[in-house]
Amino acid sequence: MNSAADRLPRLPACQLCYQKKIKCDSTRPVCIPCSKAGSDCVVLNPSGDETFSRAEIDRLEQRDKQLSQNLHTFHIDEASATNTTDQPTAEAGRTVASIENSSVSHGEGLRSRFMASLFTNPDLRRNNTELLQLLARVPSAPEPAFQPCGLPSAEDGEFLFEKYLSWSHVQSPFLRRDEVECLSGRVFLLAPADQPASNHDLFRTFMILAVGAVFPFRNGTHTQHPEGYYLAALQHMGSDFLTRGLASIQDLLLICRFGIYHRIGTSIWDIIRLCGRLCIEQGLHLNENPSSNFMQAQMERRVFWQFYMIDRYSSTLLGKPFGIDDRDIETSFPADANDEDLVTANQSLTDFSAFRLSHITLETTEMTVFFTSVLLRQISSQIHTEFSRLAQNYFESSHSHFAPGYIYTTLDRLMKDLQHWRDDSPVFQQPKCLYESQSWYDLLLAREQLYLVRRAIDLVPKRDRKTPRHICILCLKTALRTIWTYSTLCQQRPLITHTRSYFHMMFTAGLSVLFCVSTATRLEKEDISDASAGLFQCEETLKDMSQQLPSARHYAAVFEALRRDTTRKLNKILDALKSDNPPQTRGPNDVSSTFRPSSSDRSSSSLRTSNYLALGSQASSESNILGTNLDARLQENSFRGNITDNLAFAFPGERVIPGDTAMSLSSVRDNYTALAVPDNFSPGSDLFEWAFLNDETLWNMESVLGEYVYGDPDRHIGASDAFEFQ
Question: What is its main location (predicted)?
């Protein structure tokens, strides 16, 4: 037997052994039975429609072994050469070489101090003095001091409770609706003056008021700031806060829910980890015999899967480990039924599992949106797990050449899973809140696709430190889709209110566009124009969001500075392209169909047509006009259907079409004659100042904002205040 066979994967039975039903060994290049019979040793592929010679398999395996050895030797020689080169001194700061040799880190939470690198980078200070002065003028966001408030009037209290039930409860039903209504009655209607409500009732009341007041306060229909209710709730926590069993987890989830919109003084991720420990202590993750009380069994599942949903999102955003592995979860989903249906069924049935499996409803229920959200988080959990496994298994030097194939097949499969999730999303005939609207599901799809593509870019092998064009274009279009979808949704107020989570999403999408246009090996003129328009819209949306989120003002200013610096360079590329082509007016109908406004917006499109290609410093002064008129309404059909059609994802196989308008940002110098660029144009010229944008800091800087959303607030406050601008 070939000694290498023991170290190679076992091959399936050959055709001869399969037909004769005899044992087939894994010997290469021919199995023993075929060798004795003198017949060809061939195997069927898994689908059974093609045969492969075992001798050919052996040849390919030997070739792979030889190439792997050569690659390993190459890496050793390259490492030796790198060690002999001069390294930049500490006084010289980060040079272009040091930036290009940096690597993307994975899963380290706060992966890079972008604010620090932004203000201390010597190249950026020297070449972008105006940019830094702009950031220096951004005032620090004032942190108003709120005081605990008292209970509102009964009328206002009932209004805020109803707002909670009709909005937050729709996506996060970890409290029983009837218990929330009873709590409102006990506190606002039935509590006698000489018998005040219990500490637990008051804590939960103030927390529900805090969450319910988010929308009314921002819309101007309620005067009390939600943080006043939150601070009042903290006064009633009590020493037994964590000893109430399931109720303790529900109280912690209320704090997490409020923390999505306002400061809570600590990390949401830390609180949700505590929720996870309590869930495990109480066995909520196990598939034990459920209680004969249907509502009790239902609530245990609702609470656990609510923890799961927040844990998955906060952990993936921060790059931190999950609170519980998917393989350790045994419990099933809650029953797809309204609370009153469960109470009615419990009068005649005693087996909750049997009811859950047999109950069929043709209409949406109280659980519909919740199920849809949890299913999406299961896919995001799979994304995290799959790509973490790829990073671990296929990036040793002996296996790195396998990485692209596994990455692309995993990306394609998960993209299809996300599209199937969107296709199966519920349809509400009369949406009553954001979570029942189709636009929200479109936004969730775009956000998750962007996360998936970014994970793929983190791992895909680079050539000359450049991301492959096909996946870079996929990332660009996914990021632009996220920007336009959210910008469209923002026009549907008061259905939606800005949150730090949405701000992080938009900021990340904008950074992804910047990254793609600065590192792509080749871009079409249409891609450059779409990217420029998307960056303007992203900037305007971030500015609008910072009006409701004052603590995000610095991040909006950072993005504005980066956008100005990038569009100035893109403008020069477009000018060069226009000088090589007959001048023509580019209107809204010439925009890429993926991002084309709907017919309802064409009446306002004339305002932006003339300025559409004005992308340089001249356009910066007019950005408010341009941004205001870049209306983001999109045709819904533009984003439906197969993801391959929508986002042009395809496996590597790039073709250069003669006469196309593609522009390689990395090869502009090679084409400067054709583009009528002066002969003295050099990499030191303004067009080639991509050093900072090529830094993986640009790719990882959103991790700082991740701490701003779900992490420890002390890790990001004042990050830019520690630097002086001289």
Answer: nucleus
